[in-house]
Amino acid sequence: MPIRKIILASWQVLAVTWALLLILALGFNTHYFLKNGVDFDQAHLYPVTQVDDARTAAQKNLAPFANYRLIFMVGLPEYTAASYDDNVLKIRGQWKVPDVLKKVNWEGLEINEYFSFYRLISNRLMNLIDQHTITNASDDELLARALESLTGVGQASLIPKSDDPLGFFDRWAQKRLPRSTVVSSGDTLKLYADNRVWAIFVYEAPDNLEGLSAFELNDSIEQLKQISSSIVPGSVVKVHGKAYIGAAAAQTHFLELSGIATFILIFLGGLIRRWSPSNRFWLLVAFSILSSYIVGFFTVVIFFNSISLWAIVCSSALTGLVTMLVGYFLLTHRHYPKNSPTQILDRIFRPLLWIVFIECIALLILYIAPLPAVRQMAVFMSSGLLASAITLVLIFPSFNPGPIAESDFSKKMGVFSRYFPRISLKHWQERPTDYSASGLVLAILLAAGFFQLNFSQNIENLTYISPEISKEEATVDRLLSLPNNDKFFIVTASNAQDVLMGEEALRLGFVRRGMNKTDMTTTCISKWFPSYTRQKDIEHLRIEMFNRVREPLSDVLGYPLPEPNPTQLDVRFEDWLSSPSANSVRHLWLAVPEGYSSIVQVAGMTEQQMKNLYQLADYLA
Fold first, then answer.
1. Model-level pTM greater than 0.90?
2. Residue ranges per domain, the chain?
3. Largest Cα–Cα distance in the chain?
4. pLDDT (mean) for 12-35
5. 3-state SS class at 492
């Protein structure tokens, strides 16, 4: 064989070259891991799919919120509310946050900074529910509402009461906040809920969690819990964000790797020792495993510029494949003790190539899966297996190892293995029915079992998330009414106004299906800036409703009530979208090459409501 002749002609040169390459790769891997660490970003477990421009833009716009927003909530007992500011100062003074985390503002409170603008378009703002239910109210109900709006104690700074006698703008403004009880206290948010006063700290992690250590983040969270408990006994800490989930999963993965390494040392090492008392066997196995992992890490880093901790855990199965190849070489040598290592290699070279080829192809087929971590695992294991085969071919004969010694255990296993059932191609050719019947029965059983399986396409099942963390995330979602960043609607149309009207039609569908009576709510562009058509409808509706109660309301007040005529501006949608008043929702408007698109986010959504939402989207489409 030409390959064999080349190897034999320069065996030692190739062996030394391969050893030097392994040393260089080891140095590269060491430098990379010391500088970058491993990838524990949960966002990198998501499928890589070819989607339309709108979905790609939506994923890009929501990525900072979905993948890198971290919310820390410290729940202090309600009786400590009077000393809230002092307690928060103590917590902030002692708590060390990872340097790469950046403090951010809570978008829901930014409306307070721009009420002066929204007052200038107040005649065109109204809650969707008010717009579609107010006409069904009786005159007495409208009069009672007007009296409550004009005489009740409310936020007088929002708009003069005489400019909004039925309180439409006041009700609109109150609905813009995720929770009316969330207020700003310095650079910390304050929330009264669940018989506690919560201090809320919002941070943003860097893209791809670059520079953020899972251990550092976990230590910071534990430190926050200890500090809070020491300052106010009975305090609780809640954390929300995929960076937090990734750090917790990373801790679990490191424990798994420790367990796998311990199992390999004890079980595999003990089995090898039982199979042969010679030290040569386990030394060569250890060297082959080391070379396979060095090349596996190197290849993945070169191809992907990162390596997933999830992929490392799953690729630990490579150890068994490498051990099999080494055992194949050494055990064959033991059966032919008078042959040299070169002769043994010549005997097993062709079968060895077939074994490596078939296993590498089988592993690389996994690359078809559109999951970055699975692709990394496929490349890691196939390149590592190939490296172990090269090590076996080049390095082992250079050591010129003699046959490994045989133990009583290996002799017993050799006798016992004769009774193992074997599939013989020659036997199948001569008597095919011996295999056909059993094969048919096996196929029927597998098919019957396959159709009994229940499949779930939840990407979160790729990694373990403890029930405690899931419950913690759900609690923060409920307290802050956080919109879902993974499940949302995309509205696409040929012009911006059609997009806004599409959002309004979707929200109206929620109302007509009674979903507004649950905790579910929406976040979208049209809630802040209605379409031009709806703005005109609201203006006419406000005048119509006022005229219905104008006379009885004037009689109650004792003076003729003039028609509201506050100062209003004509604002173009494009001008509003580029102004600071749209900061809190600008990420919901998508930049796409053709047409116009926007995101409608939903908060407080339960799994039971998902089916209704799908049906509604199909109906509107």
1. no
2. 2-36+277-405
3. 120
4. 89
5. strand
